[in-house]
Specification:
Blueprint (H helix, E strand, L loop, with lengths): L1 H36 L3 H6 L5 H13 L14 H6 L4 H12 L2 H15 L7 H14 L6 H13 L1 H9 L7 E2 L1 H4 L19 H26 L3 H8 L2 H15 L1 E3 L5 E4 L2 H8 L3 E2 H37 L2 H17 L9 H12 L2 H7 L3 H12 L1
Helix pairs in contact: 1-3, 6-9, 8-9, 11-12, 13-14, 15-16, 15-17
């Protein structure tokens, strides 16, 4: 009974999307059929179609796409590839259509994409940012391409014009559609080697598609159950439409947006909460998330570099290698010289703790980190 109810709800949520898809295809067919009906036989023959019906059918396939297995790239036809490419088919269809158009039509198509999603929604835009950041960070620079582009655009154009250029015209109506309508992320796992990306779960999920997302949601649900939050556990496993509806209602009731852990972030209006409930991300919430993401990337990179230099220093002292010790100091100075706004220092307190821990036996090292209330029990267990 429960399974049937859940299945009914999922079908009900998907019905509007199916109706929209059907409407788009029917409208395209009718418009193309009318165009073909006004063509002369010679003009129709130039298109490669034998009839107005065939012309309209071809237009539907070329503009709306064919989503069966036979129209997938070879890499997306096997069990693993099909899972990885589940949500990439539309992007592939878009790029394939774009490649077949003349230059003028390509410019018009990309222009419409920029109007809707901004320059940040252009094909491969986020992939390019990931690759540039990865190369720059491995070369010893605090590269943050997204933040650099945003700051440069605001300096050159002003805040309002920069928002339109980067996020599209809908941004000025209080809604952020760039993430939903853009083609910025087409290469799975493009940021997996970024030093500033400590948590690789997002990149791994891109590799393995919806299956990884389902597993990650299940893991979050179990974590919330274990910490006594069954409501958050249920929300983690709910469809995205349900999650948006619940979060939107919470925003309307509390007047605040919340992060994934239920903590307040920024104040929002009732209309913004309503927009979230029907699946639209408010501009204010999206901007807060973008700024937080950019600053967090810099913080994580500094954390990674500090840990790297501290670990190298500790290893050098433990092994008595003076050359390695001097190299750790030299590497830190070079980083600080190249990145004056992201300077780090070797944590000598942490170095000392690691050196002392390395000289201890395993039991003593474990007992040192054990809470005092548990030490007697731990000693007894090790003594058996």
């Amino acid at each position: 009974m429960l399974f049937r109810s859940a299945n009914f709800l999922l079908q009900a949520w998907g019905k509007p999307f199916a109706l929209a898809e059907s409407f788009n295809r029917r409208t395209t067919f009718l418009a193309a059929y009318q165009i073909a009906s006004k063509m002369t036989p010679a003009q129709l023959k130039e298109t490669g179609a034998k009839s107005a019906f065939e012309f309209a059918e071809t237009m539907v396939k070329e503009t709306q796409g064919i989503y069966n297995a036979g129209n997938r790239p070879n890499i997306g036809r096997g069990a693993v590839g099909a899972t990885m490419m589940t949500f990439k088919q539309y992007s592939i269809m878009y790029m394939e259509l774009l490649s077949r158009l003349p230059l003028k039509q390509q410019a018009m198509m990309l222009g419409m994409l920029i109007l809707a999603a901004g320059a940040g929604g252009l094909p491969f835009e986020e992939d390019a940012e990931d690759i540039i950041d990865t190369i720059g960070q491995w070369m010893g620079y605090a590269t943050n391409t997204r933040k650099t582009i945003r700051n440069a655009a605001e300096s050159a154009l002003g805040k309002t014009a920069a928002d339109i250029a980067l996020n599209g015209v809908m941004d000025q109506m209080g809604l952020s559609l760039s993430a939903r309508m853009g083609m910025h992320n087409l290469i799975p796992g493009s940021g997996i080697l970024k030093q500033s990306s400590i948590d690789k779960s997002r990149d791994v999920q891109e590799f393995f598609g919806p299956a990884a997302s389902v597993i990650a949601s299940f893991g979050k649900a179990l974590e919330n159950l274990a910490t006594g939050h069954p409501d958050r556990a249920a929300l983690a496993m709910a469809p995205v439409a349900v999650q948006n509806a619940v979060r939107g209602l919470n925003m309307m009731n509390t007047g605040y947006a919340e992060d994934m852990k239920g903590r307040r972030t920024i104040p929002v209006s009732g209309m913004e909460g309503f927009a979230k409930s029907i699946g639209f991300n408010p501009k204010s919430v999206a901007q807060f998330g973008d700024i937080k993401r950019d600053l967090s990337q810099d913080q994580r990179l500094m954390q990674v570099r500090r840990e790297s230099f501290t670990s190298a220093m500790a290893d050098a002292i433990i092994s008595g290698d003076m050359d390695a010790r001097n190299q750790a100091i030299s590497d830190m100075k070079e980083w600080n010289l190249n990145n004056p706004n992201h300077r780090v220092m070797i944590d000598m307190r942490s170095v000392a703790q690691r050196v002392r821990a390395a000289k201890m036996e395993g039991v003593a090292r474990f007992l040192k980190s054990t809470p005092k209330t548990m030490r007697a029990e731990a000693i007894e267990e090790f003594s058996k």
